[in-house]
Amino acid sequence: MKFAENGDARLGGIICNSRNVDNELELLTEFSKKIGSRLIQFVPRDNMVQRAEINRKTVIDFDPACRQAEVYRSLAKNIIDNRDFVIPKPMPMQELEDMMVEFGIVER
């Protein structure tokens, strides 16, 4: 926060590259709100990424009609169209850890 007011850098939002964990979307949505931002895109885990990588292509080049390609196009549009830039509110580590327990990501 010390330098946030002096610089031009701002947070445009959170992008979740899913690990396919229970309640992941809900956790990231709540986290985004608590820091004063928003979830720009939830990118689900999809084996199409590995298939494209094996073929040395991007997902969009490998299979432009697949569901994951549409997710990436949506992500690009959300980034380009975004006008909501913020200085995020700091979150104490304990609050983050409590959220992860609350959403069942980790156990105490």
Describe the structure.
This protein is mostly helical. It has one domain (14-96). It has helices spanning 24-34, 48-54, 59-62, 67-81, 93-102; strands at 14-17, 39-43. The protein has a two-stranded parallel ribbon with strand order 1-2. The longest helix is centred in the C-terminal third of the chain and has 15 residues, at 67-81. The chain is flat and about 45 Å long.
Brief digest:
With 108 residues, this protein is mainly α. The protein has helices spanning 24-34, 48-54, 59-62, 67-81, 93-102; strands spanning 14-17, 39-43.
Question: Which helices and strands appear, and what pairs or packs with what?
Answer:
Elements: E1 14-17, H1 24-34, E2 39-43, H2 48-54, H3 59-62, H4 67-81, H5 93-102
Parallel strand pairs: 1-2
Largest sheet: 2 strands, parallel
Flag low-confidence runs.
none
Helix content: 40-55%
Number of strands: 2
Radius of gyration: 17 Å
> What's the arrangement of strands in the largest beta sheet?
1-2
Q: Report how far the terminal alpha carbons are from each other.
A: 30 Å
Strand content: 5-15%
> What is the string of SSEs from the N terminus onward?
EHEHHHH
Q: Which shape, going by the Cα principal axes? A: flat
DSSP helical segment count: 5
Structural category is mainly alpha
Mean pLDDT: 93
Number of self-contained structural domains: 1
Give structural attributes.
single chain, 108 residues, mainly alpha, flat
